[in-house]
């Protein structure tokens, strides 16, 4: 059995098809006529744009707007005058178009892979995709066509570029396995959008798998079995049938209120990174937005987005959600999220450093722009402000002072806003968890950020695979922390929600949260899960879990009661 990262749930049973995306070989030679060579390059760009536009159109229909935009991003990148001038300069210095494209792309790839920021590293994948396809156009090599794989295929590749995955005919593909790329890689995002089971980061899979070999994949646990036995095929066929049946049944939770089995109402929201994502949350029947990660607005820009730009983005989201709650988290920069133009200094321990609210309170002018944009937008819906990485009460107080100052300014300027706009905190550090009782007296709501809470509680870098065995929300230290936060909120009558990845973990439903914010695709499943528990039943399991000494015991208990 091969282990990787389970990046797209579901089970696949089929035959391996290896997709090779090797770079075409080209001859290095100096062009006889540099002007003609530049023309040849520009013609290739036109062809690239034409092909990419077609792929994006296809993708818009099969995988949704967001994924089509990733592909369209390639046109923007290649049309960038800076990139094109660099390539023309290289041709003028005596390189052929192929070599010039290859060299310039390589420079960009190196630049993008140098950072620790996962999203910037993703850009390198985009440039690799652009390079491969431009070289194919220039050398006349045939494009890779995944759309032709036969029914029952399990695709294996080193990595799948967005353009390669674009043509996938969902019905023919049982699964996707890649050697590179993690949970947030383009291939994983796309596999989830297409609802194809996917396992990523599987070491040496391209060496060990062969075309036509039978295979089984479990996209939730991240397992791949090559040449499965008869028993294994039967086992996974049963699992697959059960999974598909459950998925079908989820549709009956559409347009229903989210309630426990004893009719306690629970809020069920979606997480987003930009206003357009709100549509996906609505399409999946989300009741609001529980986490808008605003750093994406900053990352997409080349400078700090202005008050107007931010206002428009927040307003758009509020309007799209039509009066439903929209919890907007203020800028969470630092840690693994680098925004180059902010000129942040390199730190030895970025996760323990100048990050999120710490950074914002140090750059109050910038922070006030964001807060003002948020407060102004509050008149268009039900916006709530959420502060990331809080570790002490003073941080909350300082933000509240800024909010009050801005409100006073807006009053003076006769600009309308929601006078009762709430200010809540993310509980994602052990410090905040320890003082949850104190924070609950002054915050309007809590949202538990389990991604960071786990990392800080367990002293485990969330991206370090060497210590990944400790990075578990089932660890008693994390479970106890979550329970403490929930009861501190209940004592002060404020809502404790969860917006980290654990919110979508069906095993954790009995913990007693009042609000869940999950990825759009997990909304219906989470609603179904909540409906299975009465408060008394859930409390009983939660009490039992609190007595466990190890993460294995916690998991064992939760699994035993899984519904
Ligand atoms: C979290 O830490 O759980 C969280 C939701 O925030 P992010 O993943 O953006 O750090
Ligand atoms: Mg966090």
Q: What is the count of helical runs?
A: 22
Q: Determine the structural class based on helices, strands and strand pairing.
A: alpha/beta
Helix content: 40-55%
Q: Which ranges are low-confidence, i.e. pLDDT below 50, for 5 or more consecutive residues?
A: none
Which ligands does the model contain, each kind named once?
A: phosphoenolpyruvate, magnesium ion
Strand content: 5-15%
The largest sheet has its strands arranged as: 1-8-7-3-4-5-6-2
Shape call = globular
- Average pLDDT reading: 92
- For the CA atoms, what is the radius of gyration? 25 Å
What is the number of beta strands? 16
Distance between the termini: 27 Å
Main sheet specs: 8 strands, mixed
Q: What does the model show?
A:
The structure is a single chain. With 563 residues, this protein is an alpha/beta fold. It has helices at 34-62, 65-79, 81-92, 97-113, 118-139, 162-166, 186-194, 205-208, 230-250, 277-283, 295-299, 307-320, 356-362, 364-377, 393-412, 430-434, 436-442, 450-457, 476-491, 523-530, 535-546, 551-560; strands at residues 2-3, 5-8, 11-18, 153-157, 173-178, 198-200, 214-218, 223-226, 267-272, 288-293, 325-329, 382-387, 422-427, 445-448, 495-498, 515-518. The strands form two sheets. The protein has an eight-stranded mixed β-sheet with strand order 1-8-7-3-4-5-6-2. Strands 9-10-11-12-13-14-15-16 form an eight-stranded parallel β-barrel, surrounded by seven helices. Strand 9 (267-272), helix 10 and strand 10 (288-293) form a beta-alpha-beta unit. The longest helix is centred in the first third of the chain and has 29 residues, at 34-62. It is globular. The two termini are 27 Å apart. The structure holds phosphoenolpyruvate and magnesium ion (MG). The site of phosphoenolpyruvate has 10 residues, from strand 10 and helix 18.
